[in-house]
Structure formats: C-alpha cells, structure tokens
C-alpha cells in the first residue's frame, strides 16, 4: 500500500549504522533517515548534510518504493524529493547556543518555503524539549521549535508521548516527525518501534508514506470501501 520509512539516531556508532542498514532491507523499507550517522557512504543512494550530522538513504527495489532525488543540503539538514513528497532530515546538536539554533531554523525555513511544495515530511532531532511532544517541561529550544513549525504550518505526528531516547539517567522525546497538511493523509501507521533493537539509545520510528499515483488510488479505494455508508 505505501512505501516504508525508517527514522533513526545512530549516535555515530558503526554497529548501530550496520544494524540500521540491515533493518532497512529486512523490513523492506524504501527510505531511511539517520541522525548522527557513523559515516555517510560515497554511494548514489546516500546523501548527507554539510557536517555529516544527518543522512538520507533509499532503496528503490523495496516494495512500493521509488528512487529519491537530492534537492539540497546545508548545516544540519538534507532534503530529497521522494515521489511527490519533500523529505527533510534534520539534526541540531545540543552544543548549539540559542542564537545558533535559531539561525539554523531560519535557514531551513528559507529552503522549505523556497521550494514551494505542499507535501513535506520533516524528520528531526532538535534536542529540544516541549510538553507538546511529551517532555515534562518546555525549554527555550522547545519554544523556538513550536514557533518555527507554526510558521511553516507543520503538524506533529508523534503520538502518546512514547520516549524516543532511553538512557540510564532517564528517557526523553527528542526524535520528532512533522508533516504538512497536504501530506497528513499520506502518512500511515506512524509509531515508535519499542520492540526493535537499535544498538543506540534512540528507538526507531517507522511509518508508511504514499509516494506513487498507484498508491494514491489504492488508498482512495480502500477508504471508500471501509468508510461507513450513509
């Protein structure tokens, strides 16, 4: 029905990246978004940002998938077009001060707005806390992120406040997925994969994304057959 997406934070660990690549193939995922990769391979199916802090990879031979095309990259972000959807991977480290953090958000806003597409999915690790996505408190980064997504009219896909990062000293929700209104009905089954080993202190996020005209028709027919008759 939809191409599968795997979102991860690999903590710059080689074993975590090897497992991530294995899981992509094992689960038939067409697109992978990895914050803090161990390295970004010099391969046509891998693209990364200017700092090596986030990468996107794809497998066109996966079920219901397509090849992706690089749209742009900068400090802490990389964007590809996957079918009709712009997919943006983002990682902003905790070492950034608030001024540098806001600067990165502004540059990212300019790119997303400049492309002028209505269908956008943004997978981010902002290292920002907000009660909106399940943190016990909201910090200044969280406030900045909320203002940023409001400007771009992006909607949060995280549900249930499930922790995405689990460490000995505590748990947190820092791995987020946002989508534009035009993309919301094309994202299927978003969830935090709590049952899957990642060899990182971050959990995988998995979901399906409708990226071909055939999938759009299939989804429309499914909804027509399952919607209550009046």
Provide the CATH topology. Answer: Deoxyribonuclease I, Chain A
Looking at CATH, the homologous superfamily is Endonuclease/exonuclease/phosphatase
Mean pLDDT: 89
Q: CATH top level?
A: Alpha Beta
| Rg, alpha carbons | 17 Å
Secondary structure: number of strands? 14
Helix content: 25-40%
- DSSP strand content: 25-35%
- The number of helical elements comes to 4
Overall 3D shape: globular
Number of structural domains: 1
Order of strands in the sheet with the most strands? 3-4-2-1-14-13
CATH architecture classification: 4-Layer Sandwich
Termini Cα gap? 26 Å
Q: Quick one: biggest sheet? A: 6 strands, mixed
Give the assembly state of these chains: single chain
Helix and strand content put the structural class at alpha+beta
Q: Low-confidence segments, ≥5 residues, pLDDT <50?
A: none
Helix and strand sequence: EHEEEEEEHEHEEEEEEH
Descriptive notes:
The chain is α+β, with helices and mostly antiparallel strands. The chain has one domain (3-226): Endonuclease/exonuclease/phosphatase (Deoxyribonuclease I, Chain A, 4-Layer Sandwich), CATH 3.60.10.10. Helices cover 25% and strands 32% of the residues. The chain has four helices and 14 strands. It has helices spanning 14-26, 98-115, 140-152, 213-226, and strands at residues 3-9, 29-35, 46-48, 54-58, 69-74, 77-82, 85-91, 120-125, 155-156, 165-167, 170-172, 175-179, 187-193, 204-209. The chain has a six-stranded mixed beta sheet, covered by helices on one side. A six-stranded mixed beta sheet has the order 5-6-7-8-12-9, covered by helices on one side. A hairpin with a 5-residue loop joins β3 and β4 (54-58). The longest helix has 18 residues, at 98-115. It is globular. The mean pLDDT is 89.
């Amino acid at each position: 029905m939809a191409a599968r997406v795997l979102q991860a934070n690999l903590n710059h660990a080689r074993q975590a990246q090897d497992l991530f690549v294995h899981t992509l193939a094992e689960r038939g995922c067409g697109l992978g978004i990895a914050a803090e990769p161990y390295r970004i391979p010099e391969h046509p199916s891998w693209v990364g940002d200017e700092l090596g802090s986030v990468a996107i990879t794809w497998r066109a031979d996966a079920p219901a998938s397509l090849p992706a095309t690089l749209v742009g990259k900068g400090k802490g972000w990389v964007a590809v077009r996957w079918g009709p959807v712009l997919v943006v991977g983002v990682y902003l480290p905790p070492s950034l001060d608030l001024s540098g953090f806001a600067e990165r958000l502004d540059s990212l806003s300019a790119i997303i707005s400049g492309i002028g597409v209505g269908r956008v999915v943004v997978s981010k690790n902002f290292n920002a806390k907000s009660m909106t996505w399940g943190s016990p408190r909201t910090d200044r980064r969280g406030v900045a992120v909320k203002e940023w997504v409001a400007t771009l009219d992006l909607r949060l896909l995280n549900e249930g406040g499930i922790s995405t990062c689990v460490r000995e000293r505590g748990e947190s929700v820092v791995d987020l997925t946002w989508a534009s209104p035009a993309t919301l009905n094309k994202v299927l089954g978003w969830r935090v994969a709590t049952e899957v080993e990642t060899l990182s202190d971050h959990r995988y996020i998995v979901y399906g994304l409708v990226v071909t005209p055939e999938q759009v028709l299939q989804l429309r027919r499914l909804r027509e057959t399952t919607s209550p008759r009046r």
